[in-house]
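Q: Convert this sequence to structure tokens.
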Amino acid sequence: MVDVSPFANRLAKNVKHFSKWARRQGLDAWRAYDRDVPQFPFAVDIYKDRVHLQEYDTGWEMPDEAYRGWVDAVVESIASVLEIPPGHVTLKNRLAPERD
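A:
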């Protein structure tokens, strides 16, 4: 099992803080997390009851199975913190441009 507790804890803290701000502003779309913890290079954007999860390319390499387990654990933690179904989280990989 992958330990994503640092990510989940920071996300929960940010959601608690920024959701109040978003409500006061009348917003239903806002960023809850943006690479706050270096080991979790993600941006988490909330759109009502949906989440757009963006993974930033770090150049890290891991076997496909380990990577899938890591991403699945992150998605599960988002679903748990936000109390939404995991199917409401969409993942996008942001690849760094190739350099010459």
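The two ends are 38 Å apart (CA to CA).
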